[in-house]
Description:
Elements: H1 2-6, E1 12-19, E2 26-34, E3 43-45, H2 50-57, E4 61-63, E5 81-89, E6 92-101, H3 109-139, H4 150-167, E7 171-178, H5 181-188, H6 190-207, E8 213-218, E9 221-227, H7 231-241, E10 244-246, E11 255-257, E12 259-266, H8 273-291
Antiparallel strand pairs: 1-2, 1-6, 2-3, 4-5, 5-6, 7-9, 7-12, 8-9, 10-11
Helix pairs in contact: 5-6
Amino acid sequence: MRILQEEVEFDSCIVSLIEGSSPSDALCVRGASGLRAGLLGVTLPRGKGLLWEIVKTGAPLLVNDMHRESRLSVREEHIRSGIYAPLVTGGRVIGVLSAYRDKIGAFLQADLDLLTVVARYLAGAVDVALLHERLKELAATDALTGLANRRHCLDTLDAEIARSRRMDRPMTLVLLDLNNFKVVNDAYGHVIGDAVLVDVASTLARKIRASDLLARFGGDEFVLMLPETNDVDAREILDRLQPVAIGVLGDGRRHNITFSWGTASFPQDGGNPEELLKVADDRMFAMKQVGA
């Protein structure tokens, strides 16, 4: 974008990428320079505006007078002409590269041809970047439940302890273990057991705060990280979370699944992940023994 603006002397350039893969997805301006730099971060709902027209047709477009273009969703006084090229990779359009000038008829076909060539290279680079981000997500995600996995949880816990120490704020770590989960597996099989884990994970994820982190630690054990939360407040949150109602046992009824837990709060229960996990695990085991 910088090269297009400075070397080719476009007054403004925009890179818009499709966010999502459903009918409700949107085009998000992920890069903006020059006259339209203020559009950075703006999203356009599906079907709205000239950018979506480029996504729909998959064809480059030259507009000599933007103010006479009926498909334009927003008209800006100082934007008078524009060129558009789709970002295409693997036979699909993933976004649009566009450039603008402040005079009517300021672009030639040669400008559009240049933008189209640049768009081909840019689409490949964006596709690789998106794949890299997806691989990072997969590496941090539990394949069954879609929650953060053990590795990502431990990495985040390290960072959260450092933040809590720096800000002199509390943080509570919770280990959760489903009660009588072995009975479910023995009675209904592992397929239903996995469905129970997915149902519990999604239910808990909906109930916690946006700032909290829920992770699957292994088996039927989960970790809940509660920033800015002391032990007393954590217990109130946990009391509200259970029981978890699930409906995957095949008899048409909702069943309550309960869990045992153990909490460990920074800094009083430990100053590193190992110490906090040990305290939380001991307390969870004690709660299970009382329940048994």
